[in-house]
Amino acid sequence: MKELDIAEVARLSGIPASALRYYEEKGLIASVGRRGLRRLFDPDVLEHLSLISLGQAAGFSLEELAAMFGSDGRPRIDRGALAAKADALDRTIRHLAALRDGLRHAAACPEADHFACPTFRRLMKAAAGRRKQKGGR
Amino acid sequence: MKELDIAEVARLSGIPASALRYYEEKGLIASVGRRGLRRLFDPDVLEHLSLISLGQAAGFSLEELAAMFGSDGRPRIDRGALAAKADALDRTIRHLAALRDGLRHAAACPEADHFACPTFRRLMKAAAGRRKQKGGR
DNA sequence: GGTTGACCTCAAGTTCACTTGAACTTGTAG
DNA sequence: CTACAAGTTCAAGTGAACTTGAGGTCAACC
User: In strand C, which positions have an atom below 7 A from any protein CB?
Assistant: First the structure.
């Protein structure tokens, strides 16, 4: 008996049971069956859930994630679309890295007014230019 | 006359005027004055707005961003907190990089079932373990 | 100096991602 | 066999981040 109870899944994944039911309803995950009324989950669902959390952190909506990975967690859409998502993500990452460096500099720089600091300005300039591309939030 | 009309700011930043008013109300940006009823913005607001968009993409809430940078766009909170934000962001970035690699691999890998592919599994394992740290969404 | 259209305010509505509550069912322990 | 803790459904509520609509104002052009 390897199947997991919803409470087990919640505990192991850190995601509340209510959210797990919501995900199932939205087609992001699937239970393998029921014991009475109670859902049973395959342990694989845990891996799948970390993929979902990850995708959310990347700025993808649950709907997008459902399109990208089915309720089975396997990449689903065509390779071109996956590659495009990867590229969008890559751009996001570069911008975030610049923001990180900017914050780190702001934390270290003795300059009072960071917007006067050329290093900070340069980093922020590098970080700019997001918004309005459908794949990357 | 260098001040920008809200429509100009909207056009240049790609952010709708309604959102700009909302940001002002929330203390994320400031207008330099009014011409009659109409807000006038300093061009600097554009830089500030890209910082906001960036912060959002990084998973920070508007409230957090307001705390991090005032309505003037200058880093505001103490250096320790900024450094902590930078560290949280850095962790996020690493996870996203793993997701990007996973997607890229999924797009390229000839394997039909990606969850059977060791490369994909390894990448997803590396990407896991987000959720429940207050600074990173 | 009147019209006009872009801006204003304020309240209410929308979407997303969940959470909460009420009422109900059921496997397991005693 | 009864009790009950832990699950279930379904509807409604929540908070964040905006958007939309109604009704009002006013700077600028003709």
Answer: 6-9, 16-20, 25-28
